[in-house]
């Protein structure tokens, strides 16, 4: 395959809007997308980044949205995002069944005004609660795991 199709999902009918297709010069074996929004270049309105595997190379690919006012932070594309690179609680706290609040971060670069003119507000204590399953994805130390398994 040399063509990748992309679609915007919207609340308004018809719900799917075709975006510009990505066309490679040679066949692809696969793609690996970077899941964290905090590594995107928001100044270039980059909304996705991937690595394309070919038979001989691994190539980085950047997906951007063309915007007339690209000097502004596109807060409609980049809402506050979860802090996934730090655990929200210790493994001991999790094994005790405690609920912890998610942490959120704004992707707006310092000194870059937002397109809407609104200041991004992040309510640290208003985010949804993590379930035990989501918390399990965080770092767990070996002693806590062994203790839980021996109960």
Topology:
Elements (H helix, E strand, L loop, with lengths): L2 E2 L2 E3 L6 E3 L3 E2 L6 E4 L12 E8 L4 E7 L16 E2 L8 H5 L8 E2 L26 H5 L5 H8 L2
Antiparallel strand pairs: 1-4, 2-3, 5-6, 6-7, 8-9
Report on the structure:
This protein has 3 helices and 9 strands. It is an alpha+beta fold. It has a 3-stranded antiparallel sheet, with no helix packed on it. A two-stranded antiparallel sheet has the order 1-4. The chain has a two-stranded antiparallel sheet with strand order 2-3. The protein is globular, with a radius of gyration of 20 Å.
Instruction: Report the sheet with the most strands, covering strand number, pairing sense and barrel closure.
Output: 3 strands, antiparallel
Strand proportion = 15-25%
* Shape call: globular
- How far is the first residue's CA from the last residue's CA? 51 Å
Q: Helices and strands: which structural class? A: alpha+beta
Q: Order of strands across the widest beta sheet?
A: 5-6-7
Quantity of strands, as a count: 9
Count of discrete alpha- or pi-helical segments spanning 4 or more residues: 3
- What's the assembly state of these chains? single chain
Arithmetic mean of pLDDT: 79
Can you write the helix and strand succession as a string? EEEEEEEEHEHH
- Work out the helicity level: 10-25%
Global Rg: 20 Å
Q: Runs with pLDDT <50, length 5+?
A: 125-130, 138-143
């Amino acid at each position: 395959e040399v063509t990748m199709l992309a679609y915007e999902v919207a609340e308004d009918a018809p719900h799917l809007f075709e975006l510009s297709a990505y066309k490679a010069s040679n066949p692809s074996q696969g793609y690996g997308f970077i899941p964290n929004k905090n590594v995107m270049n928001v100044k270039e309105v980059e909304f996705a980044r991937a690595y394309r595997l070919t038979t001989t190379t691994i190539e980085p690919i950047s997906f951007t949205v063309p915007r007339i006012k690209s000097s502004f932070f596109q807060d409609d594309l980049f809402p506050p995002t979860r802090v996934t690179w730090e655990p929200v609680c210790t493994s001991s706290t999790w094994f005790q069944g405690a609920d912890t609040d998610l942490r959120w971060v704004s992707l707006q670069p310092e000194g870059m005004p937002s397109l809407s003119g609104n200041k991004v507000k992040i309510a640290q204590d208003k985010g949804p609660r993590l379930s035990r399953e989501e918390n399990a994805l965080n770092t767990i130390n070996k002693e806590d795991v062994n203790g839980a398994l021996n109960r």
